[in-house]
Amino acid sequence: MFEFTEEHKMVGQMVRRWATEKLEPEVDAIEAGEPPYDLMRDFAKTFGLAEMAKSAFERAEKRARQGHDNDSADSDRSKNDKKARGAGGLAGADPALSAVVGIELTRVCPGFMLAFGASAGLAGGAIMGKGTLEQKRRWGLPLLTWEKVGAWGMTEPGAGSDAFRSMRTVAIPDGDGYILNGQKTFITNAPYADIMVIYAKIDHRDGVSMADRPIQTFILDKDDPGVTRSKPMAKMGMHASPTGEIFMEDVRVGRDRLLGMNEKPVGRQSGKDVFHSERTGMAPMCVGIIQRCLEICVDYARERQTWSRHIAEYQLVQEKLARMFMHLQNAENLMFKQLSLSKAGKSMSAAEASATKLYCARAATECALEAVQLLGGNGYMREYRVEMFMRDAKLLQIGGGTDEIQIINIARHVLKEN
Ligand SMILES: Cc1cc2nc3c(=O)[nH]c(=O)nc-3n(C[C@H](O)[C@H](O)[C@H](O)COP(=O)(O)OP(=O)(O)OC[C@H]3O[C@@H](n4cnc5c(N)ncnc54)[C@H](O)[C@@H]3O)c2cc1C
After folding, report:
1. Which CATH code fits 6-148?
2. Is the pTM higher than 0.85?
3. Distance of CA 314 to the CA centre of its chain
4. Which one is catalytic: 278, 332, 366, 387?
5. pLDDT, tens digit, for every residue of 314-333?
6. Which of 23, 53, 228, 271 has the most other CB atoms within 10 Å of its CB?
7. Which of 288, 192, 207, 295 is nearest to 240 (CA)?
8. Does domain 269-417 have CATH number 1.20.140.10?
9. Which residue's CA is minimally distant from atom 14 of ligand 1?
């Protein structure tokens, strides 16, 4: 059975202290639109993330120079690189440590964790995972050290669940580079991103239909001529995580911006890899939401009285607490399964990752919604926080592939297997 070690628990306590002392007092401000990035830099500084990322990168670079690794798209398989990019970008962290950080930050503010993970984990992870050494140094490392903010752009106005097939952003080869045109939407951190990982279809002018063109990944800089970003979009939840659009109009980039510097025959793999890690990586966020909602509800149920009895004595209230506990057990177990596989150098299958995301996201949304109910009028008030968890949890059923897409993936798998 997988368990967090004493070291994991100790880091968890330290992150909880930071989150209580530094993040909690700022939640109202960042929920109201204050950018969360200074706090992220404070977190990175407090926990020495920049130093860890730099030394992990230097070790990987040294090995590469010694010829144990090569400077290619797939040179990322070294342990140090993997360590340097762990989910949420906790440099130097093993996946369990990243999960602990994910749980603790989410317990206080899921939107903060979403934006944190999108920059260091999704954008930083994609570059550290598939980039050349030079790309890792120039664009990946600054995301892990928090000198720069990153965004990961797949979704488009006409391409969401069907992102690969319906993508319209196009990169036309031009000399030793490419010209990009297109638009991305709903992109976490886009309004403030310095570095953007962008998926585009290559148009070799060879008559291949738009749907079938290979997809490649590009690294864009906010200052590249032709790149513009929208203001933060108004949305239901995850207010601590700025979401926006990215527009590309005749953006001319060199081949050094093509992730891995080589057009890959199966260009969709990079996006699929990120989807996979996004799906399994969401479990700690769900655990964080359920844990915190259950704690708030238990405290409230013990405190609040109606008809001279604590509401904890009513079986209708107990049923809510019991269901939250049940969901917490299951979500934790799915997260532990992933962590234990990862410790053994393995990963969940695509169907298992979909099932994990589907279950955990639904459980988190149900628990947060029930937490609002259990607190009555207070549950509807911002002060008690559960309404933030309810709004934020809903996104987990949409982002990284909707519930329906996870169901389709699972059904495809079981029907093929049986
Ligand atoms: C706050 C937020 C942050 C995000 N951050 C990012 C980001 O950083 N980067 C990024 O690339 N994207 C991001 N996204 C986009 C997100 O991944 C997409 O919204 C999601 O994949 C769904 O795509 P869509 O919105 O186009 O919905 P659609 O694909 O239009 O789906 C609409 C509805 O139809 C259903 N549906 C679609 N196809 C089928 C089918 N075949 N069978 C049954 N039902 C179907 C869906 O499940 C959904 O209920 C973010 C979204 C949000 C809201």
Report:
1. 1.10.540.10
2. yes
3. 38
4. 278
5. 999 999 999 999 999 999 99
6. 53
7. 192
8. yes
9. 186
